[in-house]
Amino acid sequence: MKEPLTLALPKGRLFKQVQKHFSEKGIIFDFEDRKLTAYDSKGLLKIILVKNSDLPTYVNYGIAGLGICGEDVIYETGLKFNNLLPFDFGGTKICLCGKQGEGEKKDLNGLTIATKFTEFTKDFFHGEGTPVKIIKLNGSVELAPILGLAPYIVDLVETGSTLKANNLEVIRTLKEIGVNLIANPSYYKTNYEKINELINILKD
Amino acid sequence: MKEKLLKTPQGAESIFLEEAYKHEKINEAINKIYTEWGYLPIKTPVFDYYENYEKLLSTNSKKNCFRLMDRDGELLLLRNDITLFLAKQLGRMLKESNQSFRVHYADSILRHQSEIDISSNEFFQTGAELVGCSGINGDLEAITLLLKIISELEIKDTKIHVGSRSILDAILNKYNLIDSSCLIELINSRDLIKLKSYLNQFMDETNSNFITKLFLFIGTFKDYLKFITTNKESIENNNIPNEIEYLKNIGDVLLDLDLIDNFRFDLSEIANRDYYTGIVFKAYTKDIDSPIASGGRYDNLIKSFGNDIPSVGFSILLRKVEDRINNEVYNPPKIKNIYGKFVEAYREAEIMRNNGIPAIIKGEK
């Protein structure tokens, strides 16, 4: 049997979607209770399950040669990978949000924004020429405008229901976020034949 | 105080004992090969004026380098890439353009490494430069010398990927509205869809398909020959037959030398820096997270320091591969302990040492 490729998958919302997409292409895998590594039915892949935000680190170190990850996560790390294949699932939007009806009001200091996505937010608004003051949060970002930590947040918005429940709304969409099959560039170079085969299987 | 004692600044490392021994031995083995190929050593300064190098540094190197100020307030750059520091010196050494010479170097480099990237092991560079020699023979010498080192050290599962900057330059020349850094970034990301749609702005779809295929091509020499035959017309239309033929000529020689299996033809190797002009190559080892060696022809490098002198060379980031080198000859020999009164023990130890066995005088048991 050929040596399998290593693929890191993120725990959480993307995982089920990846599993479903792969099984439609005949690559079936499952994780035994609490186990974090698994092999697929065809012996093509060794799959490791990692925290979403750690995924780029594993791929950067080559511990996993391949990964499936949202562009938002990659952007924050500033690391460069190969973007081998975009998927049509898992897409989302990164948006500027604030209290309902208040709109986007800049003062002399620009915007004060609470977010997990500090790099993206800084680059985006600086790119526009707007100064920003950023407060880094790790979760439940919606609380920030409600409790008065910051009037605005930048966050991923899928259905918008959490926003609505907290009397917040999307002020504008900053970027569409896709999910890609990424590779450590050196891993691709040393395994390009096998990886190209995998891409052919996964392509729609 | 205790915290500072335990902590090492990012980008610094120390090597100890057996590991340091191995590092030195491997380095000696490499130096021996350089000498056999007629290369002489060269030493570069640890720091130099920053402004000499500023325009040659990539955005990334600018972030990672260490700068300091001298007593006159001049900004200095700590040696973050030996090739760059060397180029300035070579420009001064070589006044007449018809001379050529061969130099090699081995030294530490100083770069900041972020916490996320600490495994990259970019602390030490060893490399060679063939200066003042243009054309295919120089290129062949550089890649075969690199291969010689890789094989001699028995770094398994390693392939040298050979590409070309001149193909990229020819395409940029033909489509002069293309932004080179944008194209390079798209090629490096291997994003087929984005690359194709970017190119579509400048050419028809048939040609953007071809150029996408061109810059993402990796294959054996056989695959490369097939690629040329299949795409003959597109190669002509894009004014790159000479550049494509040049790599084929390199392949023909490597085939004759029976070395071709160690190479991949990889047109995505385009070099990130503008001073590269011809072939570009990188060595990749299975399960090492970044290239272990890189090089190419950089005829514009020494020129940026004043003298127009062609040059080809490579550098190896040796620390990345040291733990892959398993040959016993690089490990420290067993040391014999000798007990007893110092006088007798000394005599006995000397006999051992003269026979090549390291000995330690331990004193009386």
What radius of gyration of chain B results from the CA coordinates?
A: 24 Å
Percent helix among the residues of chain A?
A: 25-40%
Number of helices of chain A: 8
Sheet with the most strands: spatial strand order of chain A: 2-3-1-4-9-5-8-6-7
Structural class of chain B: alpha+beta
- Mean pLDDT metric of chain B: 92
Radius of gyration of chain A: 19 Å
What's the overall average pLDDT of chain A, rounded? 94
Unreliable spans of chain A: none
| Number of helical stretches of at least 4 residues of chain B | 14
- Taken from the alpha-carbon principal axes, the silhouette of chain A is elongated
Q: What general form of chain B does the structure show?
A: globular
Strand content of chain A: 25-35%
CATH architecture descriptor of the domain at 9-157 and 286-330 in chain B: 2-Layer Sandwich
Distance between the termini of chain B: 40 Å
- Name given to the CATH homologous superfamily of the largest domain in chain A: Periplasmic binding protein-like II
- The domain count of chain A comes to 2
User: Biggest β-sheet of chain B: count, sense, barrel?
Assistant: 9 strands, mixed
Which secondary structure elements does this structure contain, and how are they paired or packed?
The complex is a heterodimer of chains A (204) and B (365).
Chain A: E1 5-10, H1 13-24, E2 37-39, E3 45-50, H2 55-60, E4 66-70, H3 71-77, E5 82-99, E6 111-115, H4 118-128, E7 132-136, H5 143-147, E8 152-157, H6 161-165, E9 168-183, H7 185-190, H8 192-202
Parallel strand pairs in A: 1-3, 1-4, 6-7, 6-8
Antiparallel strand pairs in A: 2-3, 4-9, 5-8, 5-9
Chain B: H1 2-6, H2 17-36, E1 40-41, E2 47-49, H3 50-53, H4 59-64, E3 67-69, E4 75-78, H5 82-93, E5 101-108, E6 124-131, H6 136-152, E7 158-164, H7 165-174, H8 180-189, H9 192-200, H10 205-215, E8 218-219, H11 221-230, H12 232-237, H13 241-256, E9 263-266, E10 279-285, E11 293-297, E12 311-317, E13 336-339, H14 342-354, E14 359-363
Parallel strand pairs in B: 1-5, 7-9, 13-14
Antiparallel strand pairs in B: 2-4, 3-4, 5-6, 6-12, 7-10, 8-9, 10-11, 11-12
